[in-house]
Specification:
- The protein is built from 18 helices and 7 strands.
- The chain is mainly alpha-helical and 434 residues long.
- The protein folds into 3 domains: 144 residues; 125 residues; 108 residues, Cytochrome c-like domain (Cytochrome Bc1 Complex, Chain D, domain 2, Orthogonal Bundle).
- It starts with a helix and ends in a 5-residue tail after the last helix.
- The strands form 3 sheets. The protein has a 3-stranded antiparallel β-sheet with strand order 1-2-3, with no helix packed on it. A two-stranded antiparallel ribbon has the order 4-5.
Length: 434
Amino acid sequence: MKRRVLAGAITLAVIAVVAIWLVPTDRQSGEAPPPAYTLSADPVERGRQLVTLADCRSCHTAIGGKPFAGGRAIPTSFGTFFSPNITPDAATGIGRWTADDFWRALHDGYSRDGKRLYPVFPYPSYTGISRRDADAMFAYLKTLPPVAEPNRPHELAFPYNHRVLLAVWRLLFFRPGVYRSDPARGAEWNRGAYLVQAVAHCGTCHEARNALGAARSPRDGRGGGGQVLGWYAPSLTDPREAGLRSWSVADIVTLLQTGQIGSSAATPHASAMGPMAEVVYGSLQHARSEDLRAMAVYLQSLPQIAPHPASRFFAMQYTATTDTLAEGRALYARHCARCHGDNGEGRPPAAPPLAGNREVTMSPDLDPIRIVLFGGYPPGTARDPRPFGMPPYYPSLSADQIAAVLTYVRASWGNSAPAVLEDHVEADRGNPLW
């Protein structure tokens, strides 16, 4: 009997220790690292800058809908989420919300009515936003024209349609807390870290996720980028993907601001396409150059960690047959060489080089497939309002032809990447652009 009591006491003690360890330690106070310019005294203007940098409009605007009125479909492996109306309409938007309600949503992940929010709303990143900045964002949103647009219910698979399960998810994966500056780093680095980690929530797309949608650490050997809206957002810590350690700060700023950068001895050609093109178009091109520089300083400092090959997307290697490579070579000569060159050297600025192009050689073949299927379109920006683009080939090439030409490109001119399967192309053919 005594042994049972002792065993029970030990078990309860272990559970208590684990529970205490799991319960988040909330940091509600803390000020954002100051920028390298004088902040506007008008909180609405500061809020506008922050809302723009957070790209709230893109997610909270349905295709063809009114700005910030919600309804944007966000497909995931758990089902389809629909963004809510965040205009100040009293009945369907946030017109009855207070600044405290808004802070609780960003910082704690709870709606005004107390419901737990799904982390497709990136509160695991937004929790790092300071209260002052959250209040400024709310002040700006309250100045928007109210739009009476009812929110559309999410369409989620069982059991993810039961919000009660979010209590477990939060216990396991969510730690609320305002960003804390690193005293060992400079002011510009800390400003960049705050913007990248919290406001712009870059990791929401660029971090690998586990089966429950929580971010993995790139140091666990299974890191990499993430899948978002049918595209692959490359890892910002993998030198074979989007690692920027070898880039100059100026080149990183150019890419963030324009969505494109030409080839040089130190910097390869790069273009933002898919959802990232939308981010540049709607958000980053409008950011202050000082903030973009701070973000670039932080991004350049990230450690370069390549995940173990066996843990990456499509880790199984497929060897292309001689016939497939021959077919791909013929298709490339017929459809691609005129723009991209006989040897993948490219013809800038109209067509980027394919030899040594990280977008082409990443192990996940999602992006090359989607670019060939639906076309490659960098964003139009103030500095380059009419960029060159690539037409879609889904009307003229079959799935096996697209697989063959991509396999050839990924295995030529020094490129070395797994073959593309016809099944991967066929599976993506019917998907929306994003």
